[in-house]
Amino acid sequence: MKLLDDFNIKTDNMEIYDIAFSHSSYCNEHNLPRDYQRLEFLGDKVLDLIMSDYLYNTTDYEEGKMTKIRSMYVCENALYEYANILNFKDYAKLGVGEEKNNVNNHKAIYADMFESFLGAVYQDQGYLKAKEIVYSVAIPFIEKTPEVFFMDYKSRLQELVQTDKKSIKYVLVNEQGPAHDRLFTTNVIVDNVVLGTGTAKSKKEAEQNAAKSALEKEANI
Predict the structure, then answer these.
(1) Residue 159 designated active-site
(2) Residue 205 annotated among the catalytic residues of the structure
(3) pLDDT digits (tens, 9 = 90+) for 89-143
(4) Is this structure's pTM higher than 0.90?
(5) Which of 205, 199, 20 is nearest to 117 (CA)?
């Protein structure tokens, strides 16, 4: 696997990396016992620790600011960007139905896989190798492009709406997927007109994506 070669990872446990890139749809179609979700759970915490350690040791920010910055660089948009940098599309294993019919969900899947890959590296190679990967693909964004991944689109939209004294509300219009892997779709409605739609793995981020969609049509607000 070129990805492992790129980080000089030599392993006797290729299975853990195969699992890290196996979506539940692929496992169901091929009758495999385990998908990436347990590794994703682990990788999520490893990423949080590495990011927290970096911010604590390289800045003198207060807790609230460190928390805000960390959230920007572990959100779905950020993880998807890291996955693209590492060409995860070359390694991801999706079921045929998922590949063809749920394109809107692919961003969330690749974001999840960055965490599952990090979890696999941590299990197989240890903390320092996981840290090396994060420092290679994620930390440069913090150093060079602050706040590139995440903006509080809801607050910005609220400011614009309040200027014209219009009403705004967010309406959950769809939920899909199993309980442990839900996908939420939300509309943002301004004066009874749907101005934006957002989809994400959490209701909060779906609302942010809907607000972002609406802001892209700012001339109509």
Answers:
(1) no
(2) no
(3) 999 999 887 776 665 668 889 999 999 999 999 999 999 999 999 999 999 988 8
(4) no
(5) 20
